[in-house]
Amino acid sequence: MRTMAKYFITIIVVSIAVISFTESAHAQWVQTSGPAGQSIRSLLVNGSNLYAATLNGLYMTTDNGDSWNEISIGFPDQVIFCLGVNGNTLFAGMQHGGVYKTSNINAKWREGWAEADSNLPVQSGVNAFTSLDGYFFVATGEDVYGTTDNGTHWIDIYTTPLRGYSSFAVIGNVLLTAGTFNVGIIRSTDYGNSWKSANSGVQSANIYNLGVVGANVYAEADNGVYLSTNAGISWHSVSTGLNSSYTTFDAIASSDNNVFIGAVSTESHNSLFLSTNEGASWALVDSGLTPENIVNALAVCNGYVFAGTESNVWRRPLTDMLTDVKQGTGVSKSFALQQNYPNPFSGQTTIQYFLAEPAPVTLKVYNALGEEVAAPLNGGIKVGAQSVSFNAAALNAGIYYYRITAGKYSQSGKMFVIH
To answer: Do 30 and 142 belong to one domain?
Structure first.
């Protein structure tokens, strides 16, 4: 497990509704009030509250960082590496091994902490949590473990001579995990009972992070950023426009199809990038952050993007960065995909898109395993606002993903079929 600050990676992916802000339309990144002087390792959003795991305790803010409260008083180990939520329970993973949990949601998880690692041999440290259909998983420096009783008992679900699992991604009922030290990416479709390699198209076995954005999965490697549109079955590079001096990509956060990443150069200088077209191009959005502010974690909460660095938590209005990029060259005005309507639906739904220039258009539908199940459109070239009707009567109820490609543009969406 890589424990140096510039190699630590956290991903949090969320959707944001645009709201009004008190800060100016073109504000820079600004420091919040804390946790002052703390190295931030992970950020977690729960409702309107933001939690920050640091090398010296766990902190919470209910006012977008104007004030912070320590909520880990009494922990035997204050070096907290990652956070996770399973239902109403908050989990904290320690850098030197150990898992703690609390279900005291009425006190905003300030109290009632208890050990949750009675049979979890994680002396090498806890790196990530995730949940899937009643299962809760933890990635450690040794193996991947799962629990069905909220951490009372853990089962080793993936044992290998390789070490260094650092992140998870869940898309549909597919569980992906990855790590450094030649671990690469592995994939399970049966809740961790069996695993297969999922590195097709990835030119590195050192994966720092995974993140889900809509129907897409991003992988951050030591040689760039990769994108999968089929739940990890295959990948392609989306690093065009990223300076080759950036060798570590530290964090991902997203709002709809807008993806933010933090990157560290060979000189340990930090930058933040934004892509609005699934990695086809990237724009710098780090105004106000000094190069030394290496970002270990990103989160989006209450209309702000938060960045956890080596010394503090910073914030910036989400719309500020989107506005800056739209005024530059980062946003395409040639293509747009709308959410299908109705959604959820039974029977038929409509998918709308906009095309400013003639181009061959294909629309494909995939199940939760990334398998193509329908192709409602193949070869349309009309410009302007268009719509496609899709009938799902032949499909089982569940989550599906649709992907439309028009020339060099491509976007994805998620839809829910009910019967």
So the answer is: yes
Taking a C-beta distance cutoff of 8 angstroms, is the pair 168, 137 a contact? yes
Same domain membership, residue 299 and residue 350: no
8 A C-beta contact, residue 78 and residue 39: no
- At 244-266, the pLDDT tens digits run 556 566 677 777 778 888 877 65
Q: What's the whole-number mean pLDDT along residues 362-370?
A: 88
Q: Which domain holds residue 405?
A: 335-417
Report pLDDT for 339. 75
Per the listing, tokens 């193509």 go with 372
Please report, as a single letter, which amino acid is at residue 377. L
Report whether 259 contacts 242 (CB < 8 A). Answer: no
DSSP 8-state class, residue 339: P
Instruction: Report yes or no: 262 and 295 within 8 Å, Cβ to Cβ.
Output: yes
> How many folded domains does the chain comprise?
2
Domain boundary at 306, 327, 348, which?
Answer: 327
Same domain, yes or no, for 24 and 112?
Answer: yes
221 in the same domain as 275:
yes
Q: Could you tell me if 198 and 339 lie in one domain?
A: no
Q: Distance between CA atoms of 410 and 403, rounded to whole angstroms?
A: 7
CATH number at residue 322: 2.130.10.10
Q: Give residue 86's pLDDT.
A: 93
Residues 220 and 96 in one domain: yes
Q: Judge if 360 and 239 occupy the same domain.
A: no
Please check the confidence at residue 330 and state whether its pLDDT lies above 50.
Answer: no
Q: Is the pLDDT of residue 303 over 70?
A: yes
Burial 131-145 (b: 16+ CB within 10 A, else e): bbeebbbbbbbbbbb
Give phi and psi for 223, each to the nearest 5.
-130, 20
3-state SS assignment for residue 322? helix
Q: What kind and span of H or E run contains 127?
A: strand 126-132
Percent of the chain with pLDDT over 70: 82
Last residue of a domain, one of 327, 345, 378: 327
pTM over the 0.90 mark: no
Selection from 149-158, 173-182, 226-235, 254-263 with the highest mean pLDDT: 226-235
**Least confidently predicted of 5-9, 60-64, 160-164:** 5-9
Same domain, 100 and 146: yes
